[in-house]
Write a structure and sequence with these properties.
Helix-turn-helix domain-containing protein, 10% strand, mainly alpha, globular, HTH_17, DNA-bd_dom_put_sf, DNA binding, 3 helices
């Protein structure tokens, strides 16, 4: 199984960081609101993508 880059987060890691359920993160990815790296069947979120998502969604 391919390994994720060390600085990337999993769906579960992003969910914990944002304080939401993993299903919410998967929906954000599916709706293309949160960009990801796809490595085989695995999904990883880079710190830059997470930062951009947060900045784009600040009120």
């Amino acid at each position: 199984m391919p390994t994720l880059p060390k600085n990337c987060l999993t769906v579960e890691g992003v969910a914990e960081y944002l304080g939401v359920a993993p299903l919410t993160v998967r929906r954000l990815i599916q709706r293309r609101k949160l960009k990801v790296l796809r490595i085989g069947r695995r999904v990883a979120v880079t710190p830059a993508a997470l930062e951009k998502f947060i900045l784009d969604n600040e009120k």
